[in-house]
Amino acid sequence: MILQSLYSDIGIHLLQDSKPSVYLNDVCSDPPFSQYPLDILYRLKNTEQSLKHHPEGSVWNHTMLVVDEAAEVKLQSRNPAVFMWAALLHDIGKPSTTKIRKGRLTAYDHDKVGAELSKRFLQEFSDDRLFIHEVSELIRYHMQILFVLKDLPFADIKGMGHNTDIHEVALLGLCDRLGRANCDRNKEQVNIQLFLQKCNFVLSERASIHQR
Protein backbone atom coordinates (compact mmCIF):
# COMPACT_ATOMS: atom_id res chain seq x y z
CA MET A 1 0.00 0.00 0.00
CA ILE A 2 2.84 2.39 0.80
CA LEU A 3 4.47 1.85 -2.59
CA GLN A 4 1.16 2.21 -4.43
CA SER A 5 0.46 5.45 -2.57
CA LEU A 6 3.93 6.76 -3.41
CA TYR A 7 3.43 5.89 -7.07
CA SER A 8 0.10 7.76 -7.06
CA ASP A 9 1.67 10.78 -5.36
CA ILE A 10 4.50 10.85 -7.90
CA GLY A 11 1.92 10.83 -10.71
CA ILE A 12 0.06 13.74 -9.13
CA HIS A 13 3.22 15.81 -8.75
CA LEU A 14 4.35 15.01 -12.29
CA LEU A 15 1.10 16.42 -13.64
CA GLN A 16 0.48 19.28 -11.24
CA ASP A 17 3.86 20.72 -10.25
CA SER A 18 5.78 23.27 -12.26
CA LYS A 19 8.97 21.61 -10.94
CA PRO A 20 8.28 17.97 -10.04
CA SER A 21 11.96 17.58 -9.13
CA VAL A 22 11.34 19.36 -5.82
CA TYR A 23 8.99 16.62 -4.63
CA LEU A 24 11.05 13.81 -6.19
CA ASN A 25 14.27 14.99 -4.55
CA ASP A 26 12.41 15.18 -1.25
CA VAL A 27 11.03 11.62 -1.31
CA CYS A 28 13.93 9.82 -3.01
CA SER A 29 15.71 9.42 0.33
CA ASP A 30 12.72 7.78 2.04
CA PRO A 31 13.12 4.01 2.69
CA PRO A 32 10.27 2.92 0.34
CA PHE A 33 12.11 4.54 -2.59
CA SER A 34 14.88 1.96 -2.29
CA GLN A 35 12.41 -0.96 -2.46
CA TYR A 36 11.40 -2.75 -5.66
CA PRO A 37 10.19 -1.47 -8.08
CA LEU A 38 10.98 2.11 -7.05
CA ASP A 39 14.60 1.06 -6.61
CA ILE A 40 14.73 1.12 -10.42
CA LEU A 41 14.59 4.89 -10.06
CA TYR A 42 16.73 4.98 -6.91
CA ARG A 43 19.66 3.42 -8.79
CA LEU A 44 19.80 6.48 -11.06
CA LYS A 45 21.32 8.41 -8.17
CA ASN A 46 24.50 6.33 -8.25
CA THR A 47 24.82 6.00 -12.02
CA GLU A 48 27.40 8.38 -13.40
CA GLN A 49 27.53 9.79 -16.93
CA SER A 50 30.15 11.25 -19.21
CA LEU A 51 30.80 14.77 -17.95
CA LYS A 52 31.44 15.83 -21.52
CA HIS A 53 27.81 15.25 -22.44
CA HIS A 54 26.27 15.49 -18.98
CA PRO A 55 28.10 18.03 -16.82
CA GLU A 56 25.15 17.93 -14.41
CA GLY A 57 26.43 14.60 -13.12
CA SER A 58 24.42 11.48 -12.33
CA VAL A 59 21.51 10.08 -14.30
CA TRP A 60 19.25 11.17 -11.43
CA ASN A 61 20.43 14.79 -11.73
CA HIS A 62 19.80 14.66 -15.47
CA THR A 63 16.35 13.10 -15.00
CA MET A 64 15.33 15.83 -12.56
CA LEU A 65 16.26 18.48 -15.12
CA VAL A 66 14.30 16.58 -17.78
CA VAL A 67 11.09 16.25 -15.73
CA ASP A 68 11.18 19.97 -14.97
CA GLU A 69 11.60 20.77 -18.66
CA ALA A 70 8.79 18.34 -19.47
CA ALA A 71 6.48 19.93 -16.91
CA GLU A 72 6.75 23.22 -18.78
CA VAL A 73 5.57 21.73 -22.09
CA LYS A 74 3.34 18.83 -20.97
CA LEU A 75 0.19 20.53 -22.25
CA GLN A 76 1.66 20.33 -25.75
CA SER A 77 1.52 16.53 -25.45
CA ARG A 78 -1.56 14.62 -26.58
CA ASN A 79 -1.32 12.63 -23.33
CA PRO A 80 0.44 14.51 -20.53
CA ALA A 81 0.38 11.51 -18.14
CA VAL A 82 2.15 9.28 -20.67
CA PHE A 83 4.55 12.08 -21.52
CA MET A 84 5.50 12.87 -17.92
CA TRP A 85 6.00 9.24 -16.89
CA ALA A 86 8.14 8.71 -19.99
CA ALA A 87 10.22 11.74 -18.98
CA LEU A 88 10.75 10.30 -15.49
CA LEU A 89 11.53 6.78 -16.69
CA HIS A 90 13.34 7.53 -19.94
CA ASP A 91 16.84 6.63 -18.68
CA ILE A 92 16.07 3.77 -16.27
CA GLY A 93 17.98 1.48 -18.61
CA LYS A 94 21.26 3.26 -17.86
CA PRO A 95 22.22 1.65 -14.53
CA SER A 96 22.42 -1.83 -16.07
CA THR A 97 23.99 -0.73 -19.37
CA THR A 98 26.55 1.84 -18.22
CA LYS A 99 30.09 0.60 -18.76
CA ILE A 100 33.54 2.04 -19.35
CA ARG A 101 34.56 1.28 -22.93
CA LYS A 102 37.94 2.47 -24.18
CA GLY A 103 38.11 4.93 -21.31
CA ARG A 104 34.63 6.35 -21.93
CA LEU A 105 31.39 5.95 -19.97
CA THR A 106 28.75 4.57 -22.32
CA ALA A 107 25.20 3.24 -21.97
CA TYR A 108 24.56 1.45 -25.24
CA ASP A 109 21.01 0.15 -25.75
CA HIS A 110 19.72 1.86 -22.62
CA ASP A 111 16.67 2.91 -24.66
CA LYS A 112 15.71 -0.70 -25.43
CA VAL A 113 16.50 -1.93 -21.91
CA GLY A 114 14.64 1.03 -20.43
CA ALA A 115 11.54 0.32 -22.49
CA GLU A 116 11.33 -3.20 -21.06
CA LEU A 117 12.09 -2.02 -17.53
CA SER A 118 9.38 0.63 -17.75
CA LYS A 119 6.82 -2.08 -18.54
CA ARG A 120 7.85 -4.09 -15.51
CA PHE A 121 7.85 -0.98 -13.33
CA LEU A 122 4.43 0.29 -14.39
CA GLN A 123 2.81 -3.16 -14.35
CA GLU A 124 3.46 -3.26 -10.61
CA PHE A 125 1.09 -0.32 -10.17
CA SER A 126 -1.27 -0.17 -13.16
CA ASP A 127 -3.26 -2.54 -15.33
CA ASP A 128 -3.76 0.11 -18.02
CA ARG A 129 -2.08 -1.72 -20.91
CA LEU A 130 -2.40 1.17 -23.38
CA PHE A 131 -0.81 3.61 -20.94
CA ILE A 132 2.08 1.23 -20.23
CA HIS A 133 2.57 0.53 -23.93
CA GLU A 134 2.66 4.22 -24.88
CA VAL A 135 5.14 5.09 -22.11
CA SER A 136 7.44 2.21 -23.04
CA GLU A 137 7.38 3.05 -26.76
CA LEU A 138 8.34 6.67 -26.10
CA ILE A 139 11.26 5.42 -24.02
CA ARG A 140 12.18 2.87 -26.68
CA TYR A 141 12.50 5.60 -29.33
CA HIS A 142 13.78 8.57 -27.31
CA MET A 143 17.33 8.18 -28.68
CA GLN A 144 16.14 8.34 -32.28
CA ILE A 145 16.71 12.08 -32.40
CA LEU A 146 20.46 11.54 -32.11
CA PHE A 147 20.39 8.56 -34.49
CA VAL A 148 18.34 10.36 -37.15
CA LEU A 149 20.25 13.65 -37.00
CA LYS A 150 23.59 11.87 -37.33
CA ASP A 151 22.31 9.39 -39.96
CA LEU A 152 23.41 6.49 -37.78
CA PRO A 153 22.52 2.89 -38.69
CA PHE A 154 20.37 2.65 -35.56
CA ALA A 155 17.91 5.20 -36.97
CA ASP A 156 14.47 3.63 -37.43
CA ILE A 157 12.08 6.28 -38.63
CA LYS A 158 9.64 3.78 -40.10
CA GLY A 159 9.51 1.71 -36.93
CA MET A 160 9.11 4.84 -34.83
CA GLY A 161 6.31 6.12 -37.04
CA HIS A 162 4.53 2.76 -36.78
CA ASN A 163 4.88 2.25 -33.02
CA THR A 164 4.62 5.73 -31.55
CA ASP A 165 4.06 9.41 -32.38
CA ILE A 166 7.12 11.20 -33.76
CA HIS A 167 5.87 14.52 -32.40
CA GLU A 168 5.73 13.03 -28.89
CA VAL A 169 9.24 11.63 -29.39
CA ALA A 170 10.38 15.08 -30.54
CA LEU A 171 8.84 16.79 -27.50
CA LEU A 172 10.39 14.29 -25.09
CA GLY A 173 13.68 14.46 -26.98
CA LEU A 174 13.78 18.23 -26.68
CA CYS A 175 13.33 17.97 -22.91
CA ASP A 176 16.00 15.28 -22.79
CA ARG A 177 18.47 17.47 -24.65
CA LEU A 178 17.60 20.56 -22.60
CA GLY A 179 17.96 18.59 -19.37
CA ARG A 180 21.71 19.11 -19.28
CA ALA A 181 23.83 21.76 -17.66
CA ASN A 182 24.88 24.56 -20.00
CA CYS A 183 22.80 23.39 -22.98
CA ASP A 184 22.28 25.62 -26.01
CA ARG A 185 18.50 25.99 -26.15
CA ASN A 186 18.33 27.60 -29.56
CA LYS A 187 20.56 24.94 -31.09
CA GLU A 188 18.52 22.11 -29.56
CA GLN A 189 15.23 23.57 -30.79
CA VAL A 190 16.68 23.78 -34.30
CA ASN A 191 17.85 20.17 -34.01
CA ILE A 192 14.34 19.02 -33.10
CA GLN A 193 12.89 20.77 -36.14
CA LEU A 194 15.50 19.10 -38.36
CA PHE A 195 14.60 15.74 -36.82
CA LEU A 196 10.90 16.29 -37.57
CA GLN A 197 11.68 17.37 -41.14
CA LYS A 198 13.72 14.22 -41.78
CA CYS A 199 11.05 11.99 -40.25
CA ASN A 200 8.20 13.63 -42.14
CA PHE A 201 10.10 13.29 -45.42
CA VAL A 202 10.76 9.56 -44.93
CA LEU A 203 7.22 8.84 -43.74
CA SER A 204 5.63 10.85 -46.56
CA GLU A 205 7.79 8.99 -49.10
CA ARG A 206 6.67 5.70 -47.60
CA ALA A 207 3.01 6.75 -47.77
CA SER A 208 3.32 7.79 -51.42
CA ILE A 209 4.88 4.42 -52.33
CA HIS A 210 1.97 2.57 -50.74
CA GLN A 211 -0.52 4.72 -52.67
CA ARG A 212 1.00 3.87 -56.08
TrEMBL record:
Species whose genome carries this gene: Oxobacter pfennigii
Sample GO molecular function, one term: nucleotide binding
Gene3D superfamilies xrefs: cca-adding enzyme, domain 2
Domain HD stretches: 59-144
The protein's name: Multifunctional CCA protein
InterPro entries associated with the record: HD/PDEase_dom, HD_domain, HDIG_dom, tRNA_CCA-adding_enzyme
Record keywords: Nucleotide-binding, Nucleotidyltransferase, Transferase
EC number from the UniProt entry: 2.7.7.72
